[in-house]
Amino acid sequence: MPGFEVFYAAYPRKVGKVAAQKVWLKLSPDEALQATILGALAAQRPRLDFSDDKKHIPHASTWLNGERWNDEIPGGREAAPVAADGRVWWQVAGFDSVEHAMNFRCNIVNFNEFRDGKRTTQEVAA
Q1: Element housing 82 (H / E)
Q2: Within the chain, how many helices (H) and strands (E) appear?
Q3: pLDDT greater than 90 at residue 109
Q4: DSSP assignment, residue 86?
Q5: Each residue's pLDDT tens digit, 74-83
Q6: From 27, 34, 65, 104, which residue has the greatest number of CB atoms within 10 Å?
């Protein structure tokens, strides 16, 4: 379940992994929905990370059950696209699918370290 592992690695509150995994399996997100979920999480994360103790951040299972990837992003930022031209993170990194990116350990958190499907030594602007 590589898509879930990428989501959970990016999620800021590390509690209830098994419950979140069950919700992920129930959702059974295709590639497009995974990209939307991960893009929304990347866009929302600055708002989620507002406290050191993270007690006000919902558990990952709650976030998934509530389909929080559909929430409005403060400031009007689009959830899924991460580039001005509409490409999502794995496309920006030079991969043709989420699975291909994950095979190279590229994910929503580190995609800027990749170009043309290969890890670079410096961060690449989206």
Answers
A1: none
A2: 6, 2
A3: no
A4: S
A5: 655 554 456 7
A6: 34
